[in-house]
Every structure is written in structure tokens, then in C-alpha cells.
Amino acid sequence: MGNASRPFRRIAYFLCLLSVLLLTEGKKPVKPKCPAWCTCTKDNALCENARSIPRSVPPDVISLSFVRSAFTKIPEGSFLLTPSLQLLLFTSNTFDVISDDAFMGLPHLEYLSLANNNLQSLPKDIFKGLDSLTNVDLRGNAFNCDCKLKWLVEWLGSTNATVEDIYCESPPVYKKRKINSLSPNEFDCIITEFEVYQSLPYQSLSVDTFSYMNDEHVVIAQPFTGKCIFLEWDHVEVMFRNYDNITGTSTVVCKPIVIESQLYVIVAQLFGGSHIYKRDIFANKFIKIQDIEILKIRKPNDIETFRIAEDWYFVVADSSKAGFTTVYKWNGNGFYSHQSLHAWYRDTDVEYLEISGKPHLILSSSSQRPVIYQWNKGTNEFVKRFDIQDMEDAYAVKHFKVKEDVYICLTRFIGDSKVMKWGGSAFLDLQRMPSRGSMVFQPLQINNYQYAILGSDYSFTQVYYWDAEKAKFVKFQELNVQAPRSFIHVSIDRRDFLFASSFKGTTLIYKHVIVDLSA
């Protein structure tokens, strides 16, 4: 029905009320089943100061009104015994609860008035099944326009029923706003959180994920057992399970790299040298194919793999006084030493990234500021470019991108960790995070959500969420991880997980949960 018919509906509404009052004035209820606090006629019932929803109203009434009721709840299925109702009014009541299915079983209901009932919200399915509704009166309530009321905004935009203008009373940002004019897009009702999904009963250092043979896998370095533990997703049990391992000594990094469908794993160890393994699909096991020169790699601390043009590389950050951070290149049969960088600087971390489309490495060191190297196409080697100023004692540097902008997270064990943004010729300070005992500040993206996770050996791990409007990170959640060393995102089976390694406790797997507050 169009707007032109509103006056006629209003007249009909008031005539209906008048008829109830006139017909009941001075008369006793026609049917003895009518409650004492209601006045009933053949077609109408008027209940004032009612103590509850009457269950004995004549089933053929078409109009039922409640004024200044003493009850505060409208339970589910309250009107199943009055299926003929066409007009239902609640006026000047105070309701704490209206059940989702309070008005179920009223297929003929045309007019519903919940005006002046001190309502702050309404259940999402309150109008479900009321297919004959032509008028709804919700005026005079103190609506709280939060996510729980988003459905009402959506319903107002799709219903054919006439709804008089109603207004928000809270929160302050929406106070006195007309609900009929709000858009569902104005409600930010999607939140996320990390909740513990699975615990692995061992300590760990590095955690990495890789795709191999059409499936996702995880490899974890266990320093005390000296193993690389390989996990796969159990689609039946819906959890991660161990399917293989590489046994070594004091393993600190297990870095997978897949070249032309062949899986290799670089295993960095503090003692006994570092090695490269190949996955033999016929023997269904890992086979050692190469040792990494011990004179250059004495105390490996981090490994990065990358590809430039058609060539594959990996680089090992060496933290010993006499070691060399070294780049290795794949030659078709194995990896050979391609370039030595940063001799005797005790590098603790290496990060590969592209800046303005050009390959770069950032080396972190306990003895100097982070150093940036840029790839030279002419020599096919990295060339030192500059230091990152005012960032001594940065333990690690990790990068992320927001649209086309490049950022880095720099970790400090003592002092403030930082977020910096590439400004065209240098990285510029953007944000400082207080950190104590931090050895990992890991940015990671899960779908459209950008996070940065700052671990600590002495307090809770802080999860930060990227606020696009503020263009910086804001505190989001705390995680209880003992001495975390790495975090990585694993996406599998339409689920998103966060692996958190622990040097002193159990390795934890968190599930990334998306919650719709309007649901």
C-alpha cells in the first residue's frame, strides 16, 4: 500500500480503538474466559494493568490492546491461541525482553504498535512470518542504534509496511538520527579474534608454511630435540597432525623451498653444520643432498628464500663473530655460494622485500643499525645502499604492504619497537610500540585484515590491528605465549590459523575467528 493510503489507515486505526472502548463501556465480558483485567467483546479485547499475556482471550478476536501492563516480558508464541488477530497494540508499557518468536502464528496481523514501551532494541526475527503487516508503530522508544539494531535498518529498507519515523537515542554518534534514513553500511559490526584451537606439546623456534602436492604443510624447528617436525591437515579429525620429521642437532631454522615441484628443506643448526634435504616421493622420506659450508655459516639465526627473475636463492643470516651472512643460488642440482655479505657483524635476521619494484635485503645486527642492500642487475649481486637511522640494536626487521606503500616492523629486545614507512628515499618513523623482551614483531595479513604481533619474554604478546583511517596500528588482543619466537598465518580448508612458536612452553595454534555482532 502506498503513502496516499496512510490517512485512511490511521482513521481506521482510531475508529477501531474507539469501537473497543464504546463496545466495552459499562459491559461485562461476553465470554467468561476473558481475564479479569481485560475487557472483551465479540471481536476486541482491551487489557489495562495486565499481569501477564492472557491465554484465555477468545480465539476469534481481531483486535487486542495492552496499556500500562504489569508484565515486562513477551514470551515466545504468546499469541498462538489468537490466530485471527489483525490489530495488536502495546502502549505505555515497559518491556525488558521480547522473544524472537513472540508474534509467531499471526498470519493475518496487519497493524502492530509497540510505541512508547521504553524499548532500546528489538529481536531480529520479531517480524518473521507476519506477512500481512501494513503498519508498524515503533515511535516513542529509546533505541540504542548499535549492531544489534542493524537488522532493523535493513528491514526498513525492504519492507512494504508503513513505519512512522523513529529515532536513535544512543550511542552519542547516532543520537537523534532518524533510523529510517540510516544505511546498513554505517554499522561496522564485523570483528575478529584469535582463539586457541590446538596445542602442540613441545618448544619451537621457527615456523614456516609451504604448498606442496596440492596441499598446505607446516614445518616447525624444535631446538631441544633437534628436529624439523612436518605437519599436515587432517580433514577428518579437523586438526593438524605430524607426518614426518628430519632429525638433527640444535635445529634453529627449517626453511622449505619448492623448485619445479620438488621440495627442499634448508636445516640450520648451531652444532654439527647446516644441511639441505630433498623430499624423495618414491621413498616417502627426506634425504640429505648437501652440506652448507661451515666456514661461512657458523651460527645461523635466520633464513630467507626468494626468487629474482628465473633464479632461486636463499640467504642465511649468521650471528657469529667470525661468520658471513651468505646468499646461495640454485644451479639446477644444488645450491652454491653466490655472495657473502656483512662479514663479522653478527647478523640476527634477514628480510627480503621489493621496494619500488627492485629486490632488497635488510640485515639486522646486534652490532650496528639495520643495513639495506639493493640488487644490481648488472653484477647480479646485492650492493649496500644505506643504514636505517636511529634504530640500533634492532633484533629483526619484517615488512608488509598496505596498498602500494611499504612498511617495516623493527623488533627491539630492550626499548621501543618501531613501525616505519618507506618515504621514497628512506624509511621514516611512523609508530613506536613499548617492548620489553621482544624478539619477534611479525606483520601478517589474514584475508583483508592486517595485523602486527609483538611477542615478549616477560609479558603477554600484543596483537595490533591496522586501522586504515588512522593509518597506524591499534591494540587489538593479548595472547599468552611463553617466549614467542615466530608467528605465521596458515590458511587451509577455508580456515585461517595463527601458529605461535614458543621457546619455553608449548607451541600454540590459534584460529582466526570472524564474528558478526549484528547476527
From TrEMBL:
Signal peptide: none annotated. It comes from Geospiza parvula. Its main location: cytoplasm. It comes from the Eukaryota. This is Leucine-rich glioma-inactivated protein 1. Keywords: Cytoplasm, Glycoprotein, Leucine-rich repeat, Repeat, Secreted, Signal, Synapse. The lineage of its organism: Eukaryota, Metazoa, Chordata, Craniata, Vertebrata. GO terms for cellular component: cytoplasm; extracellular space; synapse. It is found in: Cytoplasm; Secreted; Synapse. Residues 141-190 form the LRRCT domain.
